[in-house]
UniProtKB/TrEMBL annotation:
UniProt-recorded name of the protein: Translation factor GUF1 homolog, mitochondrial
Any one GO molecular-function label of the UniProt entry: GTP binding
General function of this protein: Promotes mitochondrial protein synthesis. May act as a fidelity factor of the translation reaction, by catalyzing a one-codon backward translocation of tRNAs on improperly translocated ribosomes. Binds to mitochondrial ribosomes in a GTP-dependent manner.
Cited InterPro entries: EF-4, EFG_III/V, EFG_V-like, EFTu-like_2, G_TR_CS, LepA_C_sf, LepA_CTD, LepA_IV
Encoding gene (name): waw
PROSITE patterns with a match to the protein in the record: G_TR_1, G_TR_2
Compartments where located: Mitochondrion inner membrane
Predominant place of localization: mitochondrion
Residues engaged in binding GTP: 55-62, 120-124, 174-177
Length: 645
């Protein structure tokens, strides 16, 4: 009671701006004096299990995690709360897991107390990076499959990912209580696809808790303990991080060797910067402060890291002035979808930049580079793993940081080899790089164009091969090889332009293959191409903000699409507006926005018809004069609408 009064009187005023931090502090009061905290430190490595729950979307991962938390006493039963580990607002609204969450649980089995470090992972393919780095801190996984829907796309991907890391797999069938559930059929699928013995598959109902305790017991029996040595010097793998206003960057680490105490000096292997450990805690799932972490455990470290450039996912942390061999990290997933992010008002540039940097701390899959637009000003080019990933990231920017970003889709960077001596002297070199069409030189001044290309690897079921090949051909792909993986799957390698895959290729590939095809790529540098600058003219005047760089084979379709969308978005005005999409002096597409008409003969009564014709002629001459001197006003929303596609 004394501690609660002191905290309430002296510390609460500093946390009143952040309700989340204050609630976390209140939750920590109970655990800081609880004797069970010492048990976390005294549990031997042989009684520690680190595991993840992996599955396809909506197969019941978060529900199973809730039952495990209740079974181990981490949360109270019938508390009225569900999806406890889905703490983000966007997760609760969309009903999906976006962020992998960790919980350290104590469980008694055969007269021994075990420490179970559980990581609940997302199921959507756009968040596979969360799964990928979570598995780096595990020795085994619970592969959850819906007994009604059976094996699906992400089930296959997650299984092969876990197998590639030599992790122990505990297969579990969920939702066996459903009327249409067919566990025997799904067990046969697991046997056919993964060679999993049906007798080893657990059958549970996470909703009602049926058979959930068997899952914990099988995790202890099947999954090996960490190969950790507490007698060595400290060595830890940083696999997650996030930012808090009053504490800076918090890093979630897996201790491979040694121990870590509050006050120790630690060093980052990649940045070579040193920090003093200010706080240590474990997630139960509430944050629980402790004074020491030991090898085999997963814990949260606060050490005053300031920004995302210092906290690098996959980094190895070690004691200062102690040389250790860095841990095998993991290669981050390559972004599939690129978008430009700009502030609605340039006065919000600094605030938006800060919000993006803080959010990237929690999502290492997002790449960030500066960008600019003639219409929208200074901004950034962000890379995402998919369209849903991009939507969730932008929604989190708005909900968690109050930002109002404008999202666009910029082009890739091209390379141009110049032949005009004046331009060569201006740029100081024969080759230039540009992504902004405004700076695109005249065709006569360029000797050769180059665009970035990639080698794409596609793994797809054989039944979707025809649709996948048609998609690649439509994206200017050139097939390099084709080989059978087994009787059901085939691997194709394609030479693809980067500009054709950065926006929607991955999404369309999933559509034509019912979500079963996977795609990866590696850069091949710049290759010769044939590109042109597509100019947009309004009443004969070029609008540089709407111009873009397009390949010659697709310039006609792109021109018609832009002209039509401009006709739909530019409001009618007092003059007629001619929209022309041109390459050089050649018009490829044209649309016309009719002017508002005014009935100038409304007050004309009687008289000869020539009086009427005279008034109409005067109006026509006036509109012609207006068209020659007037400027077409394009709303800001029109630029946003066109640049977004």
């Amino acid at each position: 009671m004394i501690i609660k009064r002191l905290v309430s009187r002296y510390l609460k005023p500093y946390f009143w701006k952040s309700e989340q931090n204050w609630l976390r502090l209140c939750r920590c009061q109970h655990y800081s004096t609880n004797k069970e905290i010492e048990e976390y430190l005294n549990i031997p490595v042989e009684q520690v299990r680190n595991f993840s729950i992996i599955a396809h979307v909506d197969h019941g991962k978060s529900t199973l995690a809730d039952r495990l938390l209740e079974l181990t006493g981490a949360v109270k039963k019938n508390s009225g709360k569900s999806q406890i580990l889905d703490s983000l607002q966007v997760e609760q609204e969309r009903g999906i897991t976006v962020k992998a969450q960790t919980a350290s649980l104590l469980y008694d089995y055969k007269d021994k107390r075990y420490l179970l470090n559980l990581i609940d992972t997302p199921g959507h393919v756009d968040f596979c990076n969360e799964v990928y780095r979570s598995l780096a801190a595990c020795e085994g996984v619970v592969l959850l499959v819906d007994a009604n829907q059976g094996v699906q796309a992400q089930t296959v991907a997650n299984f092969h990912l876990a197998k590639s890391k030599d992790l122990t797999i505990v297969p579990v069938l969920n939702k066996v209580d459903l009327k249409n559930a067919d566990p025997d059929r799904v067990c046969l699928e697991l046997l056919t696809l993964f060679s999993i013995d049906p007798d080893t598959v657990l059958r549970i109902s996470a909703k009602f808790g049926t058979g959930v305790e068997n899952v914990l017991q099988e995790v202890i029996e099947r999954i090996p303990h960490p190969q950790a040595d507490r007698s060595k010097h400290f060595r830890g793998l940083l696999f997650d991080s996030w930012y808090e206003q009053y504490r800076g960057t918090l890093n979630l680490i897996y201790l491979k060797d040694g121990q870590l105490n509050v006050g120790d000096e630690i060093t980052s292997h990649l940045t070579n910067k040193s920090y003093e450990v200010k706080s240590l805690s474990i997630l139960t799932p509430a944050e629980t402060p402790i004074h020491q972490l030991v090898a085999g455990q997963v814990g949260l470290v606060g050490c005053n890291m300031k920004n995302s450039k210092e906290s690098i996912i996959g980094d190895t942390l070690h004691l200062k002035n102690v040389k250790v061999e860095p841990l095998t990290g993991f290669k981050p997933q390559q972004p599939m979808v690129f978008a430009g992010v700009y502030p609605a008002d340039q006065a919000q540039h600094v605030a938006l930049r800060t919000a993006i940097e803080k959010l990237i701390l929690t999502d290492s899959a997002v790449t960030l580079t500066p960008d600019s637009s003639p219409a929208l000003g200074q901004g950034w080019r962000l890379g995402f793993l998919g369209l849903l990933h991009m939507e969730v990231f932008c929604q989190r920017l708005e909900q968690e940081h109050g930002a109002e970003p404008i999202i666009t889709a910029p082009s890739v960077t091209y390379k141009l080899k110049l032949k005009n001596p004046k331009l060569i002297s201006t740029y100081g070199e024969h080759t230039i790089y540009l992504s902004n069409p405004t700076h695109f030189p005249n065709e006569k001044d360029v000797e050769e164009y180059f665009e970035p290309c990639v080698k794409g690897t596609i793994v797809t079921p054989t039944e979707y091969l025809g649709d996948v090949i048609a998609l690649c051909v439509n994206k200017r792909g050139v097939q390099q090889s084709c080989s059978n993986i087994d009787d059901l799957r085939i691997m194709i390698k394609y030479f693809l332009p980067l500009s054709e895959i950065v926006l929607d290729f991955h999404d369309k590939l999933k559509a034509v293959s019912s979500g079963y095809a996977s795609f990866d790529y590696e850069p091949l540098g710049y290759h010769s191409t044939d590109i042109v600058k597509l100019n947009i003219h309004l009443n004969g005047n070029p609008v540089e903000e709407l111009s873009r760089i397009v390949h010659k084979t697709k310039v006609n379709s792109v021109a018609r699409d832009i002209a039509f969308r401009l006709k739909e978005t530019i409001p009618r005005q007092m003059i007629q507006i001619a929209i022309q999409a041109c390459v050089g002096s050649k018009v490829l597409a044209r649309e016309t926005i009719k002017a508002y008409r005014k009935d100038v003969t409304a007050k004309l009564y009687g008289g000869d018809v020539t009086r009427r014709m005279k008034l109409l002629k005067q109006q026509a001459e006036g509109k012609k004069k207006m068209r020659s001197i007037a400027n077409v006003r394009i709303p800001h929303e029109t630029f946003i609408s066109v640049l977004r596609k």
